[in-house]
């Protein structure tokens, strides 16, 4: 599947950039773990470690409550390439 290649690199991006604390206001960092419909990406796809995945899920939920990240998106709002910053 061509879809799978997107997530080929299996390492924790947050460990690599040595993130110890995540701020819900930094939406740019959260985007690594959000799908194009703003769902939280599962760890098996992103390769994040357990520690950072737990952080992310808390922080994303906080960001949603603060309306920085939408809970749901309609078809028109879908961002086409959310992972373009990765490469
Ligand atoms: Zn990590």
What spatial form do the alpha-carbon principal axes imply?
Answer: globular
The string of secondary-structure elements, in order, is HHHHH
Our Rg estimate from Cα atoms comes to 13 Å
Instruction: Please outline the major beta sheet.
Output: none
Low-confidence stretches: none
Secondary-structure class = mainly alpha
The DSSP helix count reads 5
Q: Can you give the mean pLDDT?
A: 78
Number of strands: 0
Q: Into which percentage range does the β-strand content fall?
A: under 5%
Terminal CA distance reads 20 Å
Heteromolecules bound: zinc ion
Helix content: 25-40%
In short:
The protein is an all-alpha fold and about 90 residues long. It has helices spanning about 1-5, 15, 25-30, 45, 50-65.
State the main characteristics:
87 residues; mainly alpha; 0% strand
